[in-house]
Amino acid sequence: MTSPTSERYRKLPGQRRGFLHGASLWMAPDHILAVKSLRFREEYKRFYLRDIQAIVVATRSRFHISTRACGIAALWLAVFIAARNRAPWGPGVMSIAAICLMVWWLYCSYFHSCSCRIYTAVSRDDLPSIYRTWTARKFLAEVEPLIWQVQGVLHGDWAEAVEERLVGPAVLPPGTPPLIQPTADARRHTLASDIFVACLFADAALNFLTLHSMTRIIEWILYALAFGEIGGAVVIFLQHHRGILRAGMQKLAIATLILLGAVYYVRQILAGVAMGNRPALPDANLLATLPSYLVLRQVEAGVCLILGLVGVALALMPESDTV
Amino acid sequence: MPLPKWELAAGDVAICTSCDSANRVRVFPAILAPPQASARAEVALDGEGTCYDHPSKRAVAACHQCGRFVCRLCSVESGSEIWCPSCVAAGAGKAKSANLDTARTLYDSTALILPLISLLLYPFTLIAAPASLVLSAMTWSRPLSLVRRNRWRFVAAILISLTEICLWTLVIVYLASGRFRGAR
């Protein structure tokens, strides 16, 4: 089934793909639609062709790591692992390929990146989906003729005429109240986020203190802390979605969930290796003697500690720094 | 911040004198348009049509939805149509015009992410897979993104969820039958 409103939009060049945020531009008969996607939600802004005053593309370095770049890195890793033991020249070739890819990315990020801004009489907005110069060229080539069609072409000594005009929204004199009052500020921390950060610290402390003496009880306490972190993360997502909590804490919750997932699977693999083909549950004391398991717990404790410190910093930092 | 004027006078690419960045500036005639007349509604003279909500103001259009006369202040442009404030407010609930949408929730992406993200801790798939199925069924007919064209995410979510549910069913049946055999 097709949405009746989707047919009239045509994709314009450029797309920003991030893990949480994305952006793209779409062309309608009479306006450009800027789409900001937040994974589960999309926000739209329309720039009517008749209203666009100027488009400025400024070169500047931008080191954006897109999901496509991460996909290429993952593919490289998979091929590297597969080729490692099959051919003696495999690792060398793969390393050269990695260096070439890295140099190419740095070159593009430094020399061929830009930011694009669009001006109307009441707004000036960055277009995050356009961050490479070749994309900006394609975008301008597509959009310019359409704007000219609607607005006509500037004739005569337009530069002179523009000299005396203000481009973009008028700058309000200092002290003027804004037209739209901002909504109540989101908080830096809530009870849920405090419990979440406390769980992180407790997790780190317990892991460090019981590195060489793992028992069933300690294992269950660690599971309880993990559930506390997951529950806290869910509440943080909800509070951020409702505008109660700032974005920094949400990112921390995401990082924690990824850590928990990774540690969970690595622990299962290590336990599986340790137990061989025996169908029983792995013994906690047996696991604690494995050097690799010890390293895993140290890493987990260290990362939990860092995440906890980041959480404290997010909760204590001034408002403007935590957005 | 206004555009630096020197950018406009330069040719195709203007170099910033302060940061040396190369700027490609495209200027359009809207920049020279006179500032828009105030949206203040004009007072209606005798015999002139008046606004439904402001009887003393001159009507400039009729609402495309309900036909009520609206003054300049009350007219809301929606694509090529003019709406009155009441129809805009009423449309916010159900038949909202796509031209007024400023955000949409992506239920299809949510339904797809649920069974996938729960794989991070696979026991959670026991809850996430049915939740995704229910979400897909409940929100299937809701409006999608303004710019996406189909519902493949819903289909993928349903397939993945069904696979996870089938696997769980097999595991439970296997464990239950093993216990049952063991008890006999």
Describe this structure in words.
The complex is a heterodimer of chains A (323) and B (184). With 323 residues, chain A is an alpha+beta fold. Chain A has three domains: 10-62 and 113-163, PH-domain like (Roll); 67-111; 191-322. Chain A is built from ten helices and seven strands. Chain A has helices spanning 67-83, 90-111, 133-151, 158-163, 191-209, 216-241, 247-275, 284-289, 291-316, 319-322; strands spanning 10-17, 22-27, 31-37, 41-48, 54-59, 114-119, 124-126. In chain A, the strands form two sheets. Chain A has a four-stranded antiparallel sheet, covered by helices on one side. Chain A has a three-stranded antiparallel sheet with strand order 5-6-7, with helices on one face. In chain A, strand 1 and strand 2 form a beta hairpin. In chain A, helix 5 (191-209) runs antiparallel to helix 6, helix 5 runs antiparallel to helix 9 (291-316) and helix 6 (216-241) runs antiparallel to helix 7. The longest helix of chain A has 29 residues, at 247-275. The two termini of chain A are 39 Å apart. The model of chain A is unreliable at 1-6 and 177-183 (pLDDT under 50). Chain B is α+β, with helices and mostly antiparallel strands and 184 residues long. Chain B folds into three domains: 1-33, no CATH class; 36-100, no CATH class; 107-183. Helices cover 38% and strands 12% of the residues of chain B. Chain B is built from five helices and seven strands, in the order αββββββαβααα. Chain B has helices spanning 5-9, 85-91, 107-117, 125-139, 152-183; strands at residues 13-15, 22-27, 61-62, 69-70, 76-78, 81-83, 103-105. A two-stranded antiparallel ribbon of chain B has the order 1-2. Chain B has a two-stranded antiparallel sheet with strand order 3-4. Chain B has a two-stranded antiparallel ribbon with strand order 5-6. The longest helix of chain B has 32 residues, at 152-183. Chain B is elongated. Chain B starts with a helix and ends with a helix. The model of chain B has no long low-confidence stretch (mean pLDDT 80). Classes of the chains: A alpha+beta (323), B alpha+beta (184). Strand 5 (54-59) of chain A pairs antiparallel with strand 2 of chain B, so a sheet runs across the interface.
